[in-house]
Amino acid sequence: MTGISDHAVLRFIERVYGVDIEKVRAEMNTPALASAVEFGARCLIGRHGERLVIRDGIVVTVIAKGRYVGKTIRT
Question: Which residues share a beta bridge with 55?
Fold first, then answer.
């Protein structure tokens, strides 16, 4: 399979499916996020229950609501 960059996928979603990326970014960029970054938080629960993972003041990924993200404890 030919490699496809994340940038290309993002542009495809934006230009072929008509998703307004800046509108999505604006929805994510809430006052709560600004406060979390200022406080030094590593994660913020968004308005839809998703987790926004923050590193060095930047949201680096989003984890869907209800998805387990911790380590598995084996007994």
Answer: 58
